Amino acid sequence: MGMQTAPMTTRSRSLWETVAANVRAEAARRGYTASSLARELGMNRSAVQARWVGDRQWQLEDLERVASLFVMEPADLLAWAPWGSNPQPTD
Is the pTM of this model over 0.90? Predict the structure, then answer.
């Protein structure tokens, strides 16, 4: 007998879309915008903005710094969460 999988009810997303969504969600929980996160990390605002919206991938070194700022493990930023669960702070 073959193994059946449950149909997906949400669109699949890439690891990097997941990371971007998780960074946005955690930033929102802590009151950061893309601009304020960039300042706190000492990064260029446009570089953070591109990662924030998923146009560019977060580099591992940057994720380590983000996770440290958020007092969490970098792996926590890689975990999938349903699409509707990540608030989108405005900038």
Answer: no
